Amino acid sequence: MYQPFQKIKKFTAAEIANEINNNLNVKKAPGVDNIPFGLLKELSAKVVHILTIFFNAYLRLEYVPDILKIAQTIMIKKTQ
Prior knowledge:
- It is a single chain.
- This protein is an all-alpha fold.
- It is about 40% helix and about 0% strand.
- It contains 3 helices and no strands.
- The protein is extended and about 50 Å long.
């Protein structure tokens, strides 16, 4: 359970790389940013390091950019 002023552990570059490599399905459609998951899997270590800096800044500032709060859901009618 979240408690105010609870210390949140920082992300590491290894954790970010692990999530990209093991949990992104390249067969799924990209999100609203239109970045294909296959491209994310081929990122260099330098880009993963930059993503780590961004994610840790979000934690430190307790701020999540609006673009990261957007999701698109498409309903598909099930045939009977």
